[in-house]
Specification:
elongated, alpha/beta, 39% helix
Length: 445
């Protein structure tokens, strides 16, 4: 069926509407992931897999994932850290430290029944426990193991501790971010963690596709800092070809002119106009056709002296305008402009809410939530948030009985032998909400 232009957008809206989301198929349904991760770098990878349907089982030590204690302004919601919640959806939670000899045996039983193992422990830690890829692949030749760390499993810096700020700094991102007369700036979000998590998830899907064709599993070594380097667009090629360093340039785009942020009377606005047609429209809006006549060639505009002049003239013009006024000019004359939105503006945006970029759901343990979902909009296999983070060991009984086939008495013995465990009352952030009824959210074998 061919659609007219007027019907196309309504058709798209109906295809992707959120009604019936949970009745649709899940792309990764049937893929079982063993998650031995903590903080953000590893968990963000399995989070994406889980939201697209993979069965993710998280193994957590007694002290808990570090993110149980990482929370903005020391804020906790019903004992839960928002820093933990955001990358821990749709998992089954097991309290078991893999360094325990009996735990190792149990984990290998899980490996026989699994597709993927993800860890972001110190390089070599899984080997210390006798759970490196050489062991796992003998137990299950089809297993895919991904190890992600700050500096990889070999090289002079292997084993160094890395956090997002370290990765941004070591990869060159912080150095090129900021204004030329000031020091480096790191991103306000954990961008090196999240982008790496997405790349890790992609590499696992690639490995699953390879296994589908060959029957073979494989080991994936992912280095956080290498991925930061890969993010830096034309930087490395420019350095190689010219021998010059890349310096900080504020909000100015060094490869597109004009493209910058400008202060207006009521806030800030982003303006971009690279093609000749777009730049002509901008100049008409500014009533500065002299700029167009002189700098219609985009290559001329990119020369440093010319770019600085154009941007300074635009800054004077924008300073006297309101943001909505410039946006109307952009719509009329064909260049690009958008108000620099505050987080609150984005959160309440009609556009993003209509697209269900922000999902609403009720978690059985913690109650009603509203948060962002993953960006790919899949018509037949959309991502979904089914539940959020859980207390340590919350799903022990379900996992050991349902997946390994142990009896209830055998699971009780594992508790008695301290092979598995649950939350500790002495660590509130590992516990259920104070008002939990003792049964909501529990999944029964």
């Amino acid at each position: 069926m061919e659609l007219s232009n007027s019907n196309y957008f309504e058709f798209m809206k109906n295809v992707f509407k959120s009604v019936g989301l949970f009745e649709k198929d899940e792309a990764l349904k049937g893929v079982r992931v063993l998650d031995v991760t903590a903080v953000v770098l590893g968990p963000s990878a399995s989070d994406m897999l889980a939201e697209f349907g993979a069965e993710v089982i998280k193994f957590e030590p007694a002290h808990g994932d570090q993110m149980r204690f990482v929370t903005p302004f020391a804020y906790f919601y019903k004992n839960m850290s928002p820093g933990l919640w955001e990358q821990q959806h749709n998992r089954y939670w097991v309290g078991m430290h893999l360094g325990h000899p009996k735990a190792k045996e149990l984990f290998l039983e899980f490996v026989k029944r699994a597709d993927v193992v993800i860890d972001n422990l110190t390089p070599g830690r899984m080997a210390e426990w006798g759970l490196d890829y050489s062991v796992l692949s003998k137990v299950n030749p089809r297993i895919i193991q991904l190890h992600v760390s700050g500096f990889g499993s070999w090289g002079p810096w292997t084993g160094r501790t890395s956090y997002d700020a370290i990765a941004q700094s070591m990869g060159g991102l912080s150095y090129i971010t900021g204004f030329e007369d000031r020091g480096p700036i790191k991103s306000g979000v954990w961008i090196a963690d999240w982008i790496n998590g997405l790349m890790c998830a992609l590499s696992i899907v690639i490995a699953l596709n390879y296994r589908e064709r060959t029957g073979k599993g494989q080991f994936i070594d992912h280095m956080q800092v290498e991925n930061v380097i890969r993010m830096l667009d034309w930087t490395w090629l420019y350095c190689y070809l010219t021998g010059k360093n890349r310096s900080r340039s504020g909000n100015r785009d060094l490869a597109i002119c004009p493209s910058d942020l400008f202060e207006c009377r009521d806030g800030w606005i982003a303006i971009a106009a690279f093609t000749e047609c777009e730049f002509e429209g901008l100049c008409k809006a500014m009533d500065r056709m002299d700029l167009f006549e002189k700098f219609r060639d985009p290559i001329e505009r990119l020369k440093d002296e010319n770019a600085r002049y154009i941007l300074s003239e635009m800054a004077k013009w924008a300073k006297e305008k309101h943001t909505e006024e410039i946006i109307r000019y952009a719509d009329t004359y064909g260049f690009s402009a958008s108000k620099v939105l505050e987080v609150d503006d984005v959160y309440h945006s009609d556009h993003f809410n209509e697209r269900w970029a922000v999902q609403e759901y009720e978690d059985e343990v913690y109650g009603y939530f509203k948060e962002q979902a993953y960006a790919p909009r899949m018509s037949e296999t959309p991502s979904r948030v089914k539940w959020g983070a859980r207390p340590i060991g919350f799903d022990n009984e379900y996992v050991f009985v349902k997946i390994l086939g142990l009896t209830v008495d055998e699971v009780k013995k594992l508790y008695d032998e301290k092979v598995i465990f649950k939350w500790s009352e002495s660590i509130p952030s590992s516990c259920p909400p104070p008002d939990w009824d003792g049964k909501s959210g529990i999944k029964y074998p």
